[in-house]
Amino acid sequence: MRLVDADAEDPVAAPPPPPPRRLDKRRVSVSFLFTVAVLVGCVVTVFMLFPSRHNQVADSALAAHRAGGPWDLEAPDPVTLAAWARGAVGRDPPMPTASVGVVAVGARTITILRRPAAVIRYRIGDAEVTLVLQRARDLQRRSLHRDADDLRVEAWQRGPWTCVAVGPAASVTTWLPRVRGT
Question: Which of 156, 138, 157, 98 shows the shortest CA–CA distance to 122?
């Protein structure tokens, strides 16, 4: 004898529950394409608004060398120049040591990437050499050696400072060791 529960539904008469509804492929692909379009648009916008600034300090030093004066200081002595540089860009900037044949012509301040920089023009032998000093804005050590027309651009870092020297390419072996202090 089989006992039947009166409250139980007939398994034959009750259909199984429907499976969960799946999104159709069209909706998924439209959502995916919209997401990709938004991401690509954001990346392109960022790169258009904020262009890369590789070697911006070196480019500004080259422009300052070509521009020449006017100078904030005209023909300063080494003590005055060192005090001016400390006031212009901060504590203990790496400057060439005063020696015979290294004469300061003038000095001024400029702004590169919203940071102060010192532009100092030296006469070393027959060459006019511009030295730009700025606090380093990144931690990565970089050096640059580039020829621009008849000029040579040399950039290096010394401690927390970015140093860029611009002078004649023909006499780079003469002025570069004196400017770098090596």
Answer: 98
Per the CB < 8 A criterion, the answer to whether 152 and 171 are in contact is: no
Of 161, 155, 100, give the one whose Cα is nearest residue 130.
155
Q: Which residues contact 66 (CB under 8 A, 6 or more apart)?
A: none
User: What type of residue sits at position 165?
Assistant: A
Backbone angles phi, psi at 128, to 5 degrees: -95, 120
Q: Tell me the torsion sign for CA atoms 89, 90, 92, 98.
A: positive
pTM given for the model: 0.72
Can you give the pLDDT of all 182 residues of the chain as single tens digits? 566 666 666 666 667 778 877 767 777 788 899 999 999 999 999 888 887 777 888 899 999 999 988 999 999 999 999 999 999 998 889 988 878 789 999 999 999 988 999 999 999 989 999 999 999 877 667 788 999 889 999 999 988 899 999 999 999 999 999 998 75
